[in-house]
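hey so u asked for the seq, here:
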Amino acid sequence: MFAPTSIAVFGATEKEGSIGRSLLQNLLVSYGGQVFPINPKHETVLDRRCFASLTALGQSVDLAVIIAPAAEIPAIMESCGRLGVFSAIIISAGFREAGKNGERLERKMLETARRYGIRILGPRSAGLICPGLGLNLTPIAKHVPLGNIAFISQSSTICAAILDWSYNNEFGFSNIISLGNGADLDFAEIIDYLAADLDTHSILIYMEGLRNSRRFMSAVRAAARIKPVIAVKAGKALATAAVAQEHTGAIVGSDDIFDAALRRAGVVRVQSIGDMFSAARALTSPKRPAGDRLAIITNGGGPAVMATDLAISLGIGIAVLSAQSILNLDVALPRSWSHGNPVDVMFDATTERYKTALTTCLDDEGVDAVLVIFAPNTLVDPEAVAQAIIDTSAGYRKPVLTCWMGELGVRGARASFAASRIPTFRSPENAVEAFHFMVSYFLSQQILLEAPGSYSYDDEPDIENARLIIEAAMAERRHELSSLEAKAILAAFRIPVSRSVLARSPNEAMLIAQQHGFPVAMKIESPGIVHKSDIGGMRLNVSNAQAVRSSYNEIVESVGRLAPEAKIEGISIETFVSRPHGRVLAIGLQNDPVFGPVVTFGEGGQVAEVFNEKSIALPPLNRRLIDDLVERARVARLLKPFRQMPAIDRKALDAVLLRVSEMACELPWISKMEINPLIIDDTGAVAVDARIAITPYVASSGPHAHMAICPYPAHLETSWQLPGGTNFTIRPVRPEDAALLQDFVRGLSNDSRYRRFMHSLTELSLPALARLTQIDYDRALVLIAFIEHDKHDTIIGFANFGIQPDGERCNFGLVTSDQQRNKGLGARLMNSLIEAARDRGLKIIEGEVLLNNLNMFKLMKDLGFAVFDSDDDEDIKLVVKQL
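ran it, structure tokens below
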């Protein structure tokens, strides 16, 4: 689709102002391949012979571009399939967005396409542009500058606008792709392609909604590990979300949850198209900030004040210069300089002043990055100052950003910065925002490296007991658990809960209270009653038996009067939790229609309902991700020491959040859960009240199919022994294994490396290493075998598979160290890999083997693989096993 040598344009026409004419004109201007207009109403179009149909053309083409009416497209798909056309771009509208008849046409079109293996971009796509090939498959008659940015959009209009905007902002593109409705090819497949494209250095996305969050997260996480991915997500408000959903038919979901998902995926989210390109410009720098402490150098006070104000509002640290730095600047700068950060080198600053100030700031250990601002004047040559900045910064690893204000007089300076890959901006605010994006990106890269499992293994939860409670409620056709059942599930996941017993009479309440010990809390137990205090359904700190009896009667009377339809099952008698230093928190789960279960954290009690300020994270979680979740919440400041209150027990809070993450992974029936209040102080945490809503769930594929992020498959870890008694372990790879895997590849013989990778190399490239170690376990698996010696692991082999787009086949690779050859290690790795593939529901595992790799052929035959000739290379054989 992205490099066709022949194209058929269905619906080509000479009608002025039509899409069919504009698109064909664009195609004929610069494209060097074969172009065939298809339209039964014309014999020629734009001086080209026009064919009545693809059958009349009598040959296959690489790509079909379709502008015909929607009703005709299923038949066009049929003709494409019969003649071996495997790619199509559909510009036409009138499908899902047009109602039931459109939905029927779309289903028929997709059924035909899938029967023949045709991949479709669209419908309602504006097409695609590949400037490197001179390919403009859109009706937009614009020159598109060549560059290294790829842009994907769900909106055709945004695609058109971006061309005008980017041309004036000195940007070029490797690809521009309009998804349209994304009925077949969606974000995931396009992102996969662009991640592997060597001509694409950054991926920009305009998105409104998603169809398949698991595929999207898998693809975008893989891409973000090797190149920046920057996104604008529209539809933040409820009203605009509805418009966006109507526009593309994709599910929009909660914006807060989208934000959390993009953060977890390593994507830099920005708020506007302009911000998108500012972020792309900032991330062209190969230098990474170690933190957010920014130093600002300026020749004018006003621009520095604007930059500092915005930096503080964005949470960027304003670096505090060391005493030595201040002393160095006192010597080099006029006496009237600012004596701090921002460093004002004065309006008449020479290139030497700028160089000295920049060197001093970059040498300061308290500075992570420097923003250099230049306001043009007649005293100093802006290009000379720019060259001084370029030369000075070249010897440092810290990033430098620049803002040469103005336009005509500083264009040359900006061009010099761009050529040197130093991010440059027109205004101080844009530069500060860009640094914020830079910091966000490199922080998100750290989050992206986290690969938590489905549970922590500290003390395994009683999952079976929790499931039995839910199944019993389902059998009674209930959609909400009682508070006692909810607490029982929390307890099954080792979350501390306040002791609760149900009383069905005043006397029973007194007996239970006496067994608990006073004081107690009393709460109405009734399905559907959420806010117990609103209807007088709760009493706290009840201190004696007589008060328990009277409180019981008062609660029943109040609930009966204010909620007469409520079914009262009794009153829960609980140990009253009183902690003078306790903080009241709320922790929850909710099932998002796009991303599945998410964990929420914030302030508890009635305040939670008023402000509704909470941080959100996608499970599975580990302690690093929990730190990020907690620190982003407004309540985080209350968890530390203040006044006479000690800090809370963070280990206890982390343990509860880990357990809630486990619940999200293992209990897909939970549609919503809230622990509120969770009371925590310096001695520990206790869940005082909880609600759990449930819904039927049928697993589609795999144990964690309900989640957007597949947990680390820790259950695949096994221990074995080599002949001679050496113990070794096989387990899925983790991101932190990158150095070990690189050492393993370097230690292989040239012959072993060539047989595994089928080309000469001495070590893995960074993208290749990332693809093997920073994997998404949903669609790829790498099993490493390692031995432990003196507390250091050494990899002795690895096997991997990647799942093909059809979801039924996978391609495998295998290599073992030369020292461990002929010891059964390869067979053990392959058996483990085959079992994992079978558990995933895959039907075929296949791979390529060099003709001279006799040991591999013997292993493959022993494992039951069939051997076939390769259609592409006579020196390669294809080995295939039915699972």
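The two ends are 32 Å apart (CA to CA). The first strand starts at residue 6 and ends at 10.
lmk if thats what u needed
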